[in-house]
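Write out the bound-state structure for beta-L-fucopyranose.
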Amino acid sequence: MASVHSVSAPKPHGAIPSERQLRWQAMEVTGFIHFTVNTFTDKEWGYGDESPEIFAPTAFDAGQIAGVAAEAGMKGLILTAKHHDGFCLWPSAYTDHSVKHSPWRGGQGDVVRELATACQEQGIGFGIYLSPWDRNHPRYGHPDYLTYYRNQLRELLSNYGPLFEVWFDGANGGEGYYGGVRENRRIDKERYYDWETTWSIVRELQPEAVIFSDAGPDIRWVGNESGVAGDPCWGTISPDGMAPGLADPKVLNTGHRNGSHWRPAEVDVSIRPGWFYHAHEDDQVRSPENLLQVYYESVGRGCNLLLNLPPDRRGLIHERDVASLREWRRILDATFATDLARGARVTASNTRGNDPRFAPTHVIDGRRDTYWATDDDVRTPELVLDLGRHATFNVVCVREYLPLGQRVDSIALDRWDGERWVEFASATGIGAQRLIRLPERITTDRVRLRVTGSPVCPAISELGLFAEP
Ligand code: FUL
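---
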């Protein structure tokens, strides 16, 4: 029997995410793999004159790389199929500047294939980075280079299975080898690439993949490479005038409240100072504590974390990086294994139409597809978790129901001290996820969430309480 609802769901507020953006938001932590000739020249940006012969990993093992990533909780890996130096990690039909001319696997190797397969075996996603800037190609800066670039993109989008993300960076033009002329090539960042045409190839061949660049169209850059999202970091932005390489990092870092487009930020940061492996940075691997801070300042602000793990000259993730990642994951798992809010009695000052579909209990069911909502004219309601016992926690997780947009401006959290409510935290913006990591542990048997500002009725999907070990 079809149920009849007296009240309809709230109307979406402002820009809302697409299905592919929603799938991407649920991934939360992904990994970046920077690996190429630079690994062997000890550089960050190759000039483009590197011989393919120097690409000679001694023990490349995509299974180790994808295994380390999966064990660290990463839901996908993005590989630099081609970085600015132009060397291709797959045997492209359009150039000889590739693994075809490397000693590795006798010239028969394909890093893209091996990693794509390894990710599939680990059950995690695979994505690619194809640098638009190509310091090797003789025609870079001319219109026919774009044909080359798009042909390569088609190869990568057609031959390696489903991709979850395609990554376009914004470092474009400058000094390079360019087929031997060794000169400086400036390009018109706004016009040269004709991005719309390139992006339409991704839509055609990989409709499920999100497209990342400084300014989108699906995912935006967070504006820095240090692992810190703005507080707040809105899922929306008004991208007028923005293009890869042409966007104000400060604006990208926070987004725009009520921006015209849903375009959440991705926080790309390396586990080491460089994007590529350098032995002299072996003692500068981020510690588990540092990675935790990065996590709370990226994922905890509604963004996805794209953590770079550079394979070394063997073609493996170095032992130090593995050790840091393991401990980081151990702490995260120990923190989030038990939600102390589960089983609480949940009450709210208002429930939309008194309809169970919008009941406050949805905030503790662990599901992203259910939510508590209020009547349209109730914009600053409160909700109480009665834990029925004393619990001690230091992390609070709040999520909004994203299909209805980013609705809430601000919240406050109170604890019951036996006689009265005492505020212990407040925040601006919730979005995909807001993790509040408290400076000290709180012990209480009741927690109250107050929506302190919202232009429309809120739609809150989750409220969780956790304790770091
Ligand atoms: C930038 C590049 O210039 C860096 O080398 C690195 O690949 C980073 C992720 O993107 O645009």
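---
The mean pLDDT is 97.
The domain at 19-336 is CATH 3.20.20.80 (TIM Barrel).
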